[in-house]
Amino acid sequence: MLRDSFWIMIIFTLVVNTIVAFITVFRQKRDIATIWAWMLVLLFLPVIGFAIFFLAGSRISSKKIFRLRTQEQRGLEQIAINQRHQLADIETLLPIPESASELLGLFLTSDKSVLTRGNKITTFTNGESKFEALFDDIRAAKEHIHLEYFTIYDDTIGNQLIDLLTKKASEGVEVRVIFDQFGSHGQHVDMYKRLRAAGGVAVPFLMRRFQVLTLRFNFRNHRKIAIIDGKIGYIGGFNVGDQYLGKFKRFGNWRDTHTRISGDAVLSLQSRFLMDWNATAEGKEILTQTTAYFPENFSLPGKSMIQIVSSGPDNDMKQIKQGFMRMFASARKKIMIQTPYFIPDSPVLETLEIAILSGVEVCLMIPSMPDHPLVYRATQYYAKELIDLGATVYRYDGGFLHSKVVMIDNEVATVGSANMDIRSFSLNFEANAFIYDPEFAVQLEELFIKDIEESTLLTANYFDQQSVWLKFKQKFSRLFSPIL
C-alpha cells in the first residue's frame, strides 16, 4: 500500500510538473528553439528545473522594459549639425564601400543609428595599453566621465579605477558609472563608497541600489563603453578586472580587442549611455537637460565612418545579429570572425553556409580553453559544423581569446561587446561599432594573421579523433544553445 502511494505521488508530481512547465514556458513570447531548450530543463529536472528557470529564464519586468523603450535618443541634432559643417571638407571623407550601403540603411531603420564620418580609431589588443590610455583620458577629463561595463571587479585594477574616478569627482568632474551586478559579482558597496562620498554616482543596471542580490541573471548589460567629456569614447571587449590584464593563471594572456574613438561616433556612444542611465537612475539622478554632453565638433580627427549599434531584450529587432547576417550576405571575398563563443542560431549558420557555397572564404578563430564549460563544448560543436561546410577554423593557443571582431572584404568591420552566440543575439544588452574604413579592416586582418601564428588549424580529423565522451558533451551542450 505504501509502495503504491509512493508511485502515485511520483506520477502525480510528474504530471503536475509537465502541466506547469508548459504554462511557464508558453506564457511569455519566446522563439521556438528557446521554448524547447527550457522544456528540456523543466521536464528532465522536475522541480529543480523551475528553480533554474526562476534564476535564469525569467524575463525583465515589463515596467523596466517600458523605461528602456521610452528613453529619448539624445544628441542626434548635434551630430547632424557637426556632420553638415564637416561635409564642407569633403575631399578628406572616405567613400562609402559598395558592400556597406545596405548595412547603413538597415541600422538607420532598425536602430536609428546615424552614420558618423571623420572619426579616428586606436586599437588595443591587451589590457595594459587599453587601461593606460583610458586612465590617461580620465585624468585629463574636465567636465564628465561616463562608464558602462558588464564587469567591474573589486580587485587591484578595479580599485585603481574607482580611486581615479573618486579623485576626479572631488575635483568637480561629473562621474557616472553603470555596472551589471551579475557580471561584477555583486554591487561592491564598500568599493563605491568613497566615489559616492566624493559626489560620483555608481548604479547597478536596472536594479535598486539597496537590492543586495539579483535573482535575474539571464538578461545582462554586457556593454563596455566609456565617454570622456563627449570627445573621447571607448568600445570593445575589455571589462575591468585583473584577469583582463592577464593576471589569472587559469587564463594566462588575455587577447581582446577594444577601440578608442574620437569624433562624432562618441556622441552616439553618449546617446546610448544616457538612455541606459535614465532607465536605471532614480529621482534627481535622472538627466533631463543633456545638451552639454554633446559638444560642438566641426573638425575631422580621422577618416573612419562609424555607426554605433545597440541591441537587447528591450527590442525584438536583434539589430546586431541582423548586422552580422547583412555583412555575411554582402561579403564577396572574405569573412573573418574572432569570438570566444561561437553558438550561432539557424539563420546565422545558414547565412554563413550560403557565403561559403558562393565561394567566400570564411575564417573563424575560437579560444583553446573554456571559461564556461557548456558554452565551450557547444562552441566546439558548431566549429565542427562550420568546418564541414568548408570554413577554416583556428584555435587560439596564446592565452584566452575574448576578442569580438567581424570583418568582410577588407572594407567593413565591427568591434564591440557582442559575441557570435544566441545570448548576445537575444538575451544580453550589447553595443558594437560598425566601421567602414578599409585601412582599419586591413589592420584587423593583420592582427588576425598574427594570431594565427599562435593558433592551431582545426580539421574534421581533429574532431573525429576526440573521445566518445567529449563528442557526447558537445552534442549535449548544443541542445541548450538557446539558453546558454
Describe this structure in words.
The chain has 484 residues and is α/β, with parallel strands linked by helices. Helix content is 43%, strand content 19%. It contains 17 helices and 19 strands. The strands form 3 sheets. It has a 15-stranded mixed beta sheet, with helices on both faces. The chain has a two-stranded parallel sheet with strand order 7-14. α1 packs antiparallel against α2, α2 packs antiparallel against α3 and α6 runs antiparallel to α11 (319-330). The chain is globular.
What would a concise description of this structure say?
The chain has 484 residues and is an alpha/beta fold. Helix content is 43%, strand content 19%.
* C-alpha end-to-end distance: 44 Å
State the low-pLDDT regions, or none. none
The radius of gyration computed from the alpha-carbon positions, rounded to a whole number of angstroms, is 23 Å
Describe the biggest sheet? 15 strands, mixed
Amount of helix:
40-55%
Q: Helix count, per DSSP?
A: 17
Strand content: 15-25%
Write down the oligomeric state.
Answer: single chain
Shape: globular
Question: What is the count of β-strands?
Answer: 19
Q: How are the strands of the biggest sheet laid out side by side?
A: 4-3-2-5-6-8-1-9-18-16-15-10-12-13-19
Q: Helix- and strand-based class?
A: alpha/beta
- What is the average per-residue confidence, as pLDDT, rounded to a whole number? 86
